[in-house]
Amino acid sequence: MIKSQWKTKLLFIIVALSIIPMMSGCSAEQDFDERLVTITEPYRFNIGQWEFRTVLGEFGEFLSGGNEIADNATSAAATYFSNVEQIKRLEWQIKAVKAGSRQGDLTALEEEYDELRQKNAELAGDVERLLESQIREALSEQGIYNPLHEYIRFNVHFPPVNFKMEKPPHLLVISPRDRIESIREVALLPDMTIEEMESIEAALDSDYVSSLVVELGGMATYPSFVTDLADVRFILDTIGEEWLHQYLTFTPLGFYYVLDLAGIRPDYEIATINETVASMVSKEIGGAVYAKYYAQNEEDEAASGETESGFDFNREMREIRKAVDDYLARGEIEQAEEFMEQKRQYLAEHGYHIRKLNQAYFAFHGTYADSPTSISPIGVELKKLRSQSESLSDFLEDVVGITSRQDLAEKLQ
């Protein structure tokens, strides 16, 4: 079984590496692209090198027999995610001490932080293999195996579920100032300071474009990047989402999304449909695994986005997005940007700290039509289509053939 999984993994790696050059393509304004390359060159993340290094490491594990799930994997996962909570708490304390807003022994805090990070690095392999097996199990229970079922007649997961828990790259997102749309995205190094991010943004921001460097929770490389500093539910959802992106690549919907990413055939609505489908399906898969193996007998107070004070973050973000779109539709760009800054400060007063709220922020987060930062009706339409489907696999089979917004409308009819 392990050998057949590895053969399938290697096949997918070859396909993935052949697609990467397409996804790095640029379009149109040559002068802007040249400037973009010059500004970002010192910080660019080389996906090809990471793929090569990671695949070699995984192949070495396979040859040494280290690819099987350890007997103590469940306890290793419990320790890992407990450490994650402590690591995040220590990060906050270290930043507060350095900023002078809190007293503490900085050396001791940093030593404890480094020790926990090292422990988790040692546990990561066992935890990855355990979570991969649990995601595969949930996919099998839903009857989801591969997008090439016309050619692959037996139940094998393709692409193979395969991810690495590491700090993902950052992503530079660029949007026009007069509308909300991602027109360029560049993967940047995982380790960047706030000053470096803001320096890149300041160099790119102009009368025409708005930029933002965002932290990613995951990335659909192969193996997938998944953040190593999140709780188990977020990790499960992200594993599923990145796998769905790989899965969709071999379908009409995913192919058209690749054309959008490469700038060959820009289509923001196809990007929104693809991202939303991956998000919706992965949340169901992640939820099933979480409920079976990790759920606690306590309410998830963050589910609605509403705090005990009654402040509803999701509702606020939707209202902000609607107002910004109205400003931009009237050509009032400066007023829209002033409004976003005022609202950013307002959100911070209620405990939601967003470093920079601008057109690029909404261009990135708004691609997910089931998120609070989107006002696209696509999310509602896809949820309606899901409610009409007898199963998750039926829903997925129905949407993979979508190549336009019109296709989605016709399916609803």
User: What level of helicity do the residues show?
Assistant: 55-70%
Strand content is 5-15%
Please state the overall shape, judged from the principal axes of the Cα atoms: globular
Task: Count every helix, treating DSSP H or I runs of 4 or more residues as helices.
Answer: 15
What does this entry look like structurally?
The protein has a three-stranded mixed sheet. It has a three-stranded antiparallel sheet with strand order 3-2-4. It is 59% helix and 7% strand. The N and C termini lie far apart (44 Å). The chain has a domain at 2-169 and 216-293. The protein is built from 15 helices and six strands. It has helices spanning 2-23, 30-40, 47-63, 73-99, 106-141, 194-204, 232-248, 252-261, 268-293, 313-329, 333-349, 359-365, 378-388, 392-399, 405-412, and strands spanning 163-165, 170-176, 184-188, 209-215, 218-219, 224-226.
Please summarize what this structure is.
The chain has 413 residues and is mainly alpha-helical. 59% of the residues lie in helices and 7% in strands. The radius of gyration is 22 Å and the shape is globular.
Summarize the topology.
Elements (H helix, E strand, L loop, with lengths): L1 H22 L6 H11 L6 H17 L9 H27 L6 H36 L21 E3 L4 E7 L7 E5 L5 H11 L4 E7 L2 E2 L4 E3 L5 H17 L3 H10 L6 H26 L19 H17 L3 H17 L9 H7 L12 H11 L3 H8 L5 H8 L1
Parallel strand pairs: 1-6
Antiparallel strand pairs: 2-3, 2-4, 5-6
Q: What key attributes describe this structure?
A:
413 residues, mainly alpha, 3-stranded mixed β-sheet, 3-stranded antiparallel β-sheet, 15 helices
